[in-house]
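Exercise 7b. Backbone tokens:
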């Protein structure tokens, strides 16, 4: 089985061809980072227009690199939720046109399902990747738009449940806002990661406290941390050199402590033997190291997909689509784009005492 996947939920225009076992035949990503950089975040209207400019050439390139024509794929999968609706619509309408023209099944995919299942996407030849996790596993999804913990009992939507999510900002959003405050440009995550590696989290004297620190809670909150950092910068000014690296290390230590700590609590509470990281923040070296430490300490296996599978890509969408196709499931041409996820949610943004 070959599935063409299309992803346009945020600021990456992606198209990929993946087979039924998850092997990637092609994976093309056109990033809009440069377009949004001057604004310090994604501008929805600009994102939609840029997807519109690029989606057709990106799809054409994905088919060309896979060495197939549209007639040779078995289905067209597309991210239909959650995300920026104007951006999603570009992908959904494109996929509808292609599926209709070629007489192929159209498969709508929840973007978060794509991230959760991205660990099963196989890049390179059959021998070059680690063994995939066994079900059940706990997945920490941390990106610019989402931060949540999931228990995953199988690859179907009904088998995935949210254990807790962020009450406010996503972890990547926190990195990006911190990067903006510290004058590091957009996106801030990779810059903070780089600087934190040379800094000392305990040296700078910034009073940054661990959010949602109760051990029993699997919810996250990062907006208070951003405020603490903003207050520190307002008092002391934006540091430079060594002091900047120390402040980045202090900030990253809190975000990583929260993410890795709650993933660990969830893994042990759910009694799983495997944990999985997903989303762009999974690129963070501090997070990878801390999760590996906790896994070794508590006897579970941590799976961190390659970076190309963690950040937004269409291969994970094609793979999640192939799972639905294999179950004989698909959508009609009335498929809609919506901003909300299909996955059941337990955390409501902003609700209740912390
Ligand atoms: O998954 P992704 O590519 O797109 C979204 O769906 O949001 O994630 C992008 C996010 C950005 O917020 C970026 O700052 C963050 O991932 N990120 C990182 C690192 N690399 C990317 N955050 C921390 N450390 C990194 N090395
Ligand atoms: Zn994403």
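Sequence design result:
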């Amino acid at each position: 089985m070959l599935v063409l996947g299309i992803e346009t939920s945020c600021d990456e225009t992606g198209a990929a061809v993946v087979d039924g076992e998850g092997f990637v035949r092609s994976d093309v990503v056109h990033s809009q980072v440069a377009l949004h950089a001057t604004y310090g975040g994604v501008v929805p209207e600009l994102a939609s227009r840029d997807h519109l400019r690029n989606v057709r050439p990106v799809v054409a390139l994905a088919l060309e690199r896979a060495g197939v024509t549209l007639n040779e794929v078995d289905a067209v999968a597309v991210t239909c939720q959650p995300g920026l609706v104007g951006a999603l619509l570009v992908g959904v309408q494109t996929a509808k046109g292609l599926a209709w023209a070629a007489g192929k099944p159209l498969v709508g995919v929840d973007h978060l399902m794509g991230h959760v299942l991205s660990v099963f996407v196989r890049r390179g030849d059959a021998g070059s990747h680690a063994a995939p996790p066994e079900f059940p596993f706990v997945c920490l999804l941390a990106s610019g738009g989402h931060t949540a913990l999931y228990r995953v009992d199988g690859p179907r939507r009904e088998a995935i449940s949210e254990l807790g999510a962020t009450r406010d900002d996503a972890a990547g959003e926190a990195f990006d806002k911190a990067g903006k405050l510290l004058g590091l440009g957009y996106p801030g995550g990779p810059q903070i990661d780089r600087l934190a590696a040379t800094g000392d989290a305990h040296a700078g004297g910034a009073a940054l406290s661990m959010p949602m620190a109760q051990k029993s809670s699997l919810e996250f909150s990062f907006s208070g941390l951003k405020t603490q950092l903003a207050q520190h910068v307002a008092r002391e000014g934006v540091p430079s050199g060594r002091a900047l690296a120390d402040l980045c290390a202090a900030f990253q230590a809190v975000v990583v402590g929260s993410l890795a700590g709650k993933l660990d609590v969830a893994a042990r509470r759910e009694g799983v033997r495997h944990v999985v990281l997903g989303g762009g923040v999974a690129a963070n070296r501090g997070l990878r190291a801390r999760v590996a430490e906790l896994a070794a300490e508590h006897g579970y296996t941590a799976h961190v997909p390659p970076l190309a599978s963690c950040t937004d890509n269409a291969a994970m969408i094609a793979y999640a689509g192939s799972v639905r196709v294999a179950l004989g499931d698909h959508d009609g041409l009335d498929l809609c784009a919506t901003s909300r996820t299909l996955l059941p949610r337990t955390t409501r943004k902003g609700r209740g005492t912390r």
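Instructor comment: Residues 10, 143-145, 172, 175-176, 187-190, 193, 279-281, 283-284, 311-312 surround KG4 (ligand 1) (CB under 6 Å). The longest helix spans residues 241-270.
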